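Here is the promised in-class demo. Please do not try to memorize the tokens; focus on the logic of going from shape to residues.
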């Protein structure tokens, strides 16, 4: 299929973009892309590709922007219940970390998730993934972390594998058994850390070999934060995970700085995520490393806080900056990377071009799939978006409505704005 007549085709070619290289979109005016068998074969100017491939079926982009599908590299997309009441309590003055310490917050969702059977979890998560896809996300990271006991965590892993099978999205799965101290361990937090390290991680390792044979091991993540896991406990979890062969990630500096970003660099984590209260010294370390800095601007926005990831400092330090939704029921129930981009432009002063690259090629790098997706280059997977706009800057400039007209996933076309949508 030849997609042609794009006002701008954003190739975002050349690999992950560090520091002030962020935002190099590789724009082809009057652009075209040739797709065969789920892959991109060629990109170029419409006149040239029409002449080179005169007999291909055609898709007229009709003056719209064509770009790579969004990659959302940090979500907690699978959970039971909701926390609408907590949202109201927080607006009235309750503090997130106090609720967490009191066995509410994440633990409220843990109670609802433990009660839900796998069919209920799959059904609720399916609709979130559907919204992500229709808003242009073609690859997503998905964390467990609302089970916090072996059986429920495995149920979440099983549900995520089933959801990836049935959905159009590519999924990178993350085991987040160390998301919070479950209520039954409130008096013995170290006992829970030991359980994660000595029991859960080895079980997940074996379970994965049986249920996802041949597939790369999931990431292991930890929430390094006041009232969650301290630095020593985070180190214990990630070190054990590494020993077992898992790639690792960390939630660091969302509220308080416990040293998680430094730990991420020291242990070679694929990403360090949140990075709101990160020190200048740690930003320099991140910039000198291959650990991707994932910013989650919907989280402070969702919490009505005013501090965001210091994006300019990260770029000055040469970091690989990525963006994600952090879709979760507590701090950021948002499925749209378009909204993340709009927010990053305003709250973090990224340009639309920088935010777009952070939401595509750099986001792919954060979950180690940048060799397959995140840009439009020959050989890459044919995951593309046709946006109903003439200029890429409409992403960022506009917000709150869906600008995606068509999602092309592995070469198949799904129309979004005419209401027709294939789910099976
Ligand atoms: O990103 N950092 C870890 N977890 C979530 C909160 C999840 C919740 O409150 O349910 C976050 O903000």
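The designed amino acids, position by position:
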């Amino acid at each position: 299929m030849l997609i042609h007549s794009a006002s701008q085709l954003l190739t975002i070619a050349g690999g992950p973009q560090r520091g002030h290289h962020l935002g190099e979109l590789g724009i082809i005016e009057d652009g075209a892309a040739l797709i065969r068998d789920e892959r991109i074969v060629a990109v170029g100017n419409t006149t040239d590709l029409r002449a080179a491939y005169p007999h291909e079926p055609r898709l007229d982009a009709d003056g719209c922007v064509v770009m790579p599908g969004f990659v959302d590299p940090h979500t907690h997309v699978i959970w039971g219940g909701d926390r609408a009441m907590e949202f109201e309590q927080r607006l009235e003055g309750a503090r997130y970390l106090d609720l967490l310490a009191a066995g509410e917050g994440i633990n409220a969702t843990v109670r609802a998730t433990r009660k839900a059977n796998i069919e209920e979890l799959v059904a609720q998560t399916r609709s979130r993934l559907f919204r992500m896809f229709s808003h242009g996300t073609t690859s997503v990271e998905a964390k467990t972390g609302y089970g916090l006991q072996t059986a429920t965590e495995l149920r979440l892993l099983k549900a995520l594998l089933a959801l990836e099978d049935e959905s159009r999205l590519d999924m990178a799965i993350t085991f987040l058994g160390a998301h919070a101290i479950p209520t039954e361990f409130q008096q013995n937090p170290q006992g829970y850390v030991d359980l994660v390290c000595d029991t859960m991680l080895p079980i997940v390792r074996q379970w994965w070999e049986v249920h996802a044979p041949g597939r790369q091991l999931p990431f292991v993540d930890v929430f390094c934060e006041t009232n969650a896991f301290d630095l020593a406990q985070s180190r214990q979890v990630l070190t054990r995970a590494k020993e077992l062969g898992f790639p690792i990630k960390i939630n660091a500096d969302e509220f308080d700085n416990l040293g998680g970003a430094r730990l991420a660099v020291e242990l070679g984590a694929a990403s360090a995520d949140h990075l709101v209260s990160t020190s200048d010294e740690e930003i320099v370390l991140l910039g000198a490393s291959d650990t991707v800095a994932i910013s989650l601007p919907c989280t402070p926005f969702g919490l009505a806080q005013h501090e965001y990831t210091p994006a300019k400092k990260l770029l000055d330090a040469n970091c690989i900056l990525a963006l994600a939704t952090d879709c979760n029921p507590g701090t950021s129930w948002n499925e749209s990377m378009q909204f993340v981009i709009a927010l990053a432009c305003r709250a973090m002063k990224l340009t639309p071009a920088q935010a777009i690259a952070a939401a595509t090629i750099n986001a792919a790098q954060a979950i180690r799939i940048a060799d397959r997706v995140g840009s439009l280059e020959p050989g890459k997977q044919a995951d593309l978006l046709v946006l109903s706009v003439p200029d890429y800057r409409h992403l960022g400039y506009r917000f709150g409505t869906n600008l995606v007209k068509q999602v092309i996933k592995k070469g198949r076309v799904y129309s979004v704005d005419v209401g027709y949508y294939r789910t099976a």
